[in-house]
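Q: Hi! New to this. If I give you a protein sequence and the SMILES for pyridoxal-5'-phosphate, can you show me the bound structure?
A: Yes, paste them in.
Q: Okay, here:
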Amino acid sequence: MRITRSVRRLEAYTPGEQPASRRVVKLNTNENPYPPSPACAEVLRRFDLDRLRRYPDPVFSELRSALAAMCGTTPERIFVGNGSDEVLSVAAKTFVEDDEAIGSLDPSYSLYKTLAAIRDVKWVGVPPPADAADAPSLAPKLASRNVSLFLWTNPNAPTGAFAEPETVAAFAKAFPGVVIVDEAYADFAHTNCMRLATEATNRNVIVMRTFSKSYSLAGLRVGWCVGPADLIAAMYKVKDSYNVDAIAQAVALAAVRDQAWMRANVAKVVKTRTRFIHALESRGWDVIPSESNFVFAKPPAPAKAATIFEELRARNIFVRYFKGPKTGDRLRITIGTDRQMKALLAALDS
Ligand SMILES: Cc1ncc(COP(=O)(O)O)c(C=O)c1O
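A: Thanks. Here is the predicted structure of the protein with pyridoxal-5'-phosphate bound:
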């Protein structure tokens, strides 16, 4: 048996539970409660099985062109992965030497720490800066700890908090390494950082998106990113040859072409989010202002988040609880349909 030291020590990432039963109220993994575009269903119905005899397009030409057109850039600036988790994993192999480190906000998406551990490099967490004036001061702190890749989740997870693009830009300008702005939830926010990735002068900002949240396609496994052509070309050298299957490419393309469907679903989620935040606040909960499809909320004392998590689970209502000093007093609750949120509130009230 020969398992590497880093893997022996590795604390694996724990994904949210995926209960087999469909009869649960599932608000634990930030999935979209509404179905994907009917155009995706049509692609699946008409998909020619003979295409599966061959390998898929290794460079996702059609999907890449559609994504490039959508964000006003060229296909050479687009990379696609098997979910944005794979984009992150490729980035960790592409932009980090063995003696360098991966940085991120803290708290943030806990996979980042695991990615660093898999690469056997250090992870450095920093609190989110207050504003654009404060942001550049993070750069020397991170550089002094050899951070070459910084992952900035925006809106952040699990908090849902949003940093203005000016703040991210001010940091990226001061930081010598690569900055990936993880915009998994950006479609639910009032604006985003895409401009930072597409502008001609950009040398180190990559903006990453996913089909898992706003497009309702978490099961498809497609994520993508936009950045300077030299960084993107380097990522293509590292990825598996056929990392996105033919069905996923075709379905994702249909989803990109139906922006109206995605926008309508996002609007419904955002409306429910507003109502749900009011409902929680009227029950004495403290809710961090959220620009994503979830809220991070603290129950009124003496109630404990961990206890409520268990009580809800016993009633087949799944939310997310993250132990730890920065997160353990709150629950992360995905915004589902109005009906699902009502069921959750009724359980809290009883
Ligand atoms: C901040 C953040 N980034 C990336 C991902 C991964 O998304 P994907 O399904 O595209 O791998 C998630 C998933 O929950 C997330 O919360």
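A: Residues 259-282 form the longest helix (24 residues). Let me know if you'd like me to explain how to read the tokens.
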